Amino acid sequence: MGGGVFELLQARQPMESEIASFAALRANRNDILELRKAIELEREQLSSGIIADDTDEHSHYLVAIMQESWKLRNRDGMWLNQHRDTSDFSARWKWYEDRLRIVQAIQRRVARGAKRAMWQNIKNVKNKMLKLADITAVDFDGHMFSSSPLEND
Fold first, then answer.
1. What is the fold, at CATH topology level, of the domain defined by 5-135?
2. What is the pLDDT of residue 11?
Protein backbone atom coordinates (compact mmCIF):
# COMPACT_ATOMS: atom_id res chain seq x y z
CA MET A 1 0.00 0.00 0.00
CA GLY A 2 2.54 2.65 1.01
CA GLY A 3 2.31 5.78 3.09
CA GLY A 4 0.03 8.76 2.77
CA VAL A 5 0.70 11.91 0.79
CA PHE A 6 2.28 13.76 3.71
CA GLU A 7 4.46 10.82 4.70
CA LEU A 8 5.69 10.69 1.12
CA LEU A 9 6.40 14.43 1.07
CA GLN A 10 8.24 14.11 4.39
CA ALA A 11 10.48 11.44 2.89
CA ARG A 12 11.09 13.38 -0.32
CA GLN A 13 11.89 16.71 1.31
CA PRO A 14 15.29 15.91 2.85
CA MET A 15 16.32 13.54 0.04
CA GLU A 16 15.52 15.86 -2.83
CA SER A 17 16.96 18.87 -0.99
CA GLU A 18 20.28 17.07 -0.55
CA ILE A 19 20.22 15.86 -4.15
CA ALA A 20 19.59 19.42 -5.39
CA SER A 21 22.52 20.57 -3.27
CA PHE A 22 24.73 17.87 -4.74
CA ALA A 23 23.52 18.66 -8.27
CA ALA A 24 24.58 22.28 -7.79
CA LEU A 25 28.12 21.02 -7.19
CA ARG A 26 28.23 18.28 -9.83
CA ALA A 27 25.82 19.10 -12.69
CA ASN A 28 27.51 19.34 -16.05
CA ARG A 29 26.55 21.62 -18.93
CA ASN A 30 24.21 19.01 -20.45
CA ASP A 31 22.45 18.42 -17.10
CA ILE A 32 21.81 22.15 -16.75
CA LEU A 33 20.54 22.42 -20.34
CA GLU A 34 18.10 19.56 -19.67
CA LEU A 35 16.88 21.23 -16.46
CA ARG A 36 16.42 24.53 -18.30
CA LYS A 37 14.46 22.78 -21.08
CA ALA A 38 12.19 21.13 -18.52
CA ILE A 39 11.53 24.38 -16.65
CA GLU A 40 10.85 26.26 -19.91
CA LEU A 41 8.38 23.58 -21.01
CA GLU A 42 6.62 23.88 -17.66
CA ARG A 43 6.39 27.68 -18.04
CA GLU A 44 4.95 27.29 -21.56
CA GLN A 45 2.36 24.77 -20.39
CA LEU A 46 1.27 26.89 -17.43
CA SER A 47 1.02 29.96 -19.67
CA SER A 48 -1.25 27.94 -21.96
CA GLY A 49 -3.43 26.77 -19.08
CA ILE A 50 -2.19 23.20 -19.27
CA ILE A 51 -1.70 21.01 -16.21
CA ALA A 52 0.87 18.38 -17.13
CA ASP A 53 2.28 16.37 -14.26
CA ASP A 54 4.75 14.74 -16.61
CA THR A 55 6.66 18.05 -16.86
CA ASP A 56 6.90 18.35 -13.08
CA GLU A 57 7.82 14.69 -12.86
CA HIS A 58 10.51 15.10 -15.54
CA SER A 59 12.12 17.92 -13.53
CA HIS A 60 12.25 15.71 -10.47
CA TYR A 61 13.68 12.77 -12.42
CA LEU A 62 16.48 15.01 -13.65
CA VAL A 63 17.37 15.98 -10.09
CA ALA A 64 16.61 12.68 -8.36
CA ILE A 65 15.72 9.09 -9.09
CA MET A 66 12.29 9.28 -7.49
CA GLN A 67 10.32 6.87 -9.67
CA GLU A 68 8.76 4.85 -6.86
CA SER A 69 7.62 7.93 -4.93
CA TRP A 70 6.01 9.28 -8.10
CA LYS A 71 4.16 6.01 -8.62
CA LEU A 72 2.80 6.25 -5.07
CA ARG A 73 1.90 9.92 -5.52
CA ASN A 74 0.08 9.25 -8.78
CA ARG A 75 -2.14 6.66 -7.05
CA ASP A 76 -3.04 8.92 -4.11
CA GLY A 77 -6.67 10.09 -4.19
CA MET A 78 -5.98 13.45 -2.53
CA TRP A 79 -3.25 14.26 -5.07
CA LEU A 80 -5.46 13.26 -7.99
CA ASN A 81 -8.39 15.35 -6.69
CA GLN A 82 -6.14 18.39 -6.29
CA HIS A 83 -5.26 18.23 -9.97
CA ARG A 84 -8.88 18.05 -11.13
CA ASP A 85 -9.36 21.72 -10.21
CA THR A 86 -7.92 23.65 -13.15
CA SER A 87 -9.47 27.01 -12.26
CA ASP A 88 -6.72 28.11 -9.86
CA PHE A 89 -3.19 27.99 -11.21
CA SER A 90 -1.69 30.03 -8.35
CA ALA A 91 -0.22 26.96 -6.61
CA ARG A 92 1.11 25.63 -9.90
CA TRP A 93 2.82 28.97 -10.65
CA LYS A 94 4.31 29.02 -7.14
CA TRP A 95 5.70 25.51 -7.68
CA TYR A 96 7.08 26.54 -11.07
CA GLU A 97 8.82 29.54 -9.47
CA ASP A 98 10.25 27.22 -6.80
CA ARG A 99 11.65 24.90 -9.46
CA LEU A 100 13.01 27.84 -11.42
CA ARG A 101 14.95 28.88 -8.29
CA ILE A 102 16.27 25.32 -7.96
CA VAL A 103 17.49 25.31 -11.57
CA GLN A 104 19.03 28.77 -11.18
CA ALA A 105 20.86 27.75 -8.00
CA ILE A 106 22.18 24.59 -9.67
CA GLN A 107 23.27 26.61 -12.68
CA ARG A 108 25.11 29.09 -10.41
CA ARG A 109 26.57 26.17 -8.40
CA VAL A 110 25.04 27.43 -5.14
CA ALA A 111 24.50 24.18 -3.24
CA ARG A 112 22.89 25.74 -0.17
CA GLY A 113 20.51 27.78 -2.37
CA ALA A 114 19.49 24.68 -4.36
CA LYS A 115 18.86 22.79 -1.13
CA ARG A 116 16.75 25.58 0.34
CA ALA A 117 14.80 26.08 -2.89
CA MET A 118 13.96 22.37 -3.10
CA TRP A 119 12.97 22.34 0.57
CA GLN A 120 10.68 25.33 -0.02
CA ASN A 121 9.14 23.71 -3.10
CA ILE A 122 8.07 20.65 -1.15
CA LYS A 123 6.91 22.85 1.73
CA ASN A 124 4.68 24.79 -0.69
CA VAL A 125 3.25 21.53 -2.08
CA LYS A 126 2.60 20.36 1.49
CA ASN A 127 0.80 23.61 2.36
CA LYS A 128 -1.51 23.26 -0.66
CA MET A 129 -2.22 19.63 0.17
CA LEU A 130 -2.95 20.48 3.83
CA LYS A 131 -5.64 22.91 2.64
CA LEU A 132 -7.29 20.02 0.78
CA ALA A 133 -6.83 17.40 3.49
CA ASP A 134 -9.48 15.95 5.72
CA ILE A 135 -7.63 16.28 9.01
CA THR A 136 -10.27 14.16 10.76
CA ALA A 137 -9.58 11.15 8.53
CA VAL A 138 -8.12 8.18 10.35
CA ASP A 139 -5.25 7.95 7.84
CA PHE A 140 -4.38 11.68 7.96
CA ASP A 141 -0.60 11.91 8.16
CA GLY A 142 -0.08 15.68 8.05
CA HIS A 143 1.53 15.59 11.48
CA MET A 144 4.69 14.34 9.70
CA PHE A 145 5.75 17.96 9.19
CA SER A 146 6.14 19.26 12.71
CA SER A 147 9.63 20.73 12.23
CA SER A 148 12.18 21.74 9.64
CA PRO A 149 15.84 20.78 9.92
CA LEU A 150 16.67 23.75 7.67
CA GLU A 151 15.33 26.27 10.20
CA ASN A 152 18.50 25.89 12.24
CA ASP A 153 20.79 25.48 9.22
1. Four Helix Bundle (Hemerythrin (Met), subunit A) (1.20.120)
2. 80
